[in-house]
Specification:
Elements: E1 4-7, E2 12-15, H1 19-38, H2 63-78, H3 80-86
Antiparallel strand pairs: 1-2
Helix pairs in contact: 1-3
Length: 89
């Protein structure tokens, strides 16, 4: 199996060195996200509120302060699943 991402504008190509491992990592993250959602737990992730976030209007005004207050408790509730997903490369 091979996987390559082609950028037509600058004619560059990025080859995925280990597609099977990438797929396994993605599967692990998706399963963790599913378990968390089915348990009724959710928290904004580290990329929330970016320029392309359609839901940023619904976020607290002090997003950084909100995240710092909630992150430790959320990590305890969500467990290693969420931490692994958020820290994935």
């Amino acid at each position: 199996m091979e996987a390559t991402l082609l950028y037509l504008r600058d004619e560059s190509a990025l080859r995925l060195d280990d597609p099977r491992q990438a797929l396994a990592d993605l599967t692990t993250c998706l399963r963790a996200a599913r378990r968390t959602a089915l348990a009724g737990h959710a928290l904004i992730g580290p990329d929330t509120g970016g320029d392309y976030d359609d839901m940023r209007l619904a976020l607290p005004a002090g997003l950084a302060a909100y995240r710092s207050r909630k992150e430790a408790q959320a990590n305890r509730i969500l467990g290693d699943d969420a931490i692994a997903v958020w820290d994935a490369p």
